[in-house]
């Protein structure tokens, strides 16, 4: 009969059966290890003024690095102007190891080598020269011709032209010279529009110019027309011209700019090089067509323009009146040396 093993007996195959006693050398090593750990722990507790830092240990074995002294940066010229300062060029300076001993062999780097990073300087506003403004050539000042002085003692001879009328002196002087005439009822009708035929009649009496132009046959002029000879003379002397299609349109009312252009052409007034500058001082200069700008500017520059009723306007498209024609012709005769400037 087989007997059961005693459960209180240790299993011969268990690890506990294989335990052995420590040797004397192992016991000594353990004691030394515990003493070393205790010494380090006690030393750490005594360092109350300085924290434990691996950097301290590293400095004892690594070569010392010289302290980097920051470069002195001159003040920016844009300081206080609200302009961002240009970044300074980066400088990569290799540290120089000390000559003292260490566990690492020192390497001699190139000292003071700066990186080649381009820097775009910012120029302060005070250093930027402003672009000069274009110099505009001022319009030449026009010296107006002396105006005739209205004189109450000099009657105009017309019942509807009082002595204080703006063109009374012009009308009175031209009437005295038989350049203009009134109507049979003793009136002049100064505000009545003037026609091309009437203006041709005034020109033929005001100027004695040579006939240098060809005589033009106009289809709308009969041979017995009352102003036929005056129209022919105004064309031959260069003051007036016809329209395309061989017509003159004698009954057409004349705008102011055509009166001025006719006088400038007949008196051979030289158009200015830059007529726009002469006309720029008038508020309505843009109403003058391109073809008439040079002639109107020449009339303004010569002083034959009256600018009535506003000195700042030419009224180029306004239909001229008999008073306008008298004033312009009078001043043109003064310009041509046919009348003394002052009328009394």
Detailed description of the structure:
The chain crosses the membrane at residues 27-45. Residues 154-217, 218-277, 279-343 form the SLH domain. Keywords: Membrane, Transmembrane, Transmembrane helix. InterPro entries: Cell_Envelope_Struct_Comp, SLH_dom. This is S-layer homology domain-containing protein. By secondary structure, the chain is mostly helical. Among the domains are: 148-192 and 322-344, no CATH class; 195-252, no CATH class; 255-320, no CATH class. It has helices spanning 24-46, 54-61, 168-176, 196-206, 228-236, 256-266, 275-279, 290-302, 322-335. α4 packs across α5 (228-236). The termini are far apart.
Helix content: 25-40%
What's the β-strand tally? 0
Poorly predicted runs: 8-17, 54-58, 75-109, 149-153
How much of the polypeptide forms β-strand, as a percent range? Answer: under 5%
Q: Major sheet: size, sense and barrel closure?
A: none
Kindly, what is the distance between the CA atoms of the first and last residues, rounded to a whole number of angstroms? 179 Å
Number of helices: 9
Mean residue pLDDT? 76
Helix and strand composition category? mainly alpha
**In one word, what is the shape?**
rod-shaped
Q: Which key features would you list for this structure?
A:
rod-shaped; transmembrane helix; mainly alpha; 9 helices; Cell_Envelope_Struct_Comp; 30% helix; transmembrane; 0% strand; membrane; 344 residues; single chain; SLH_dom
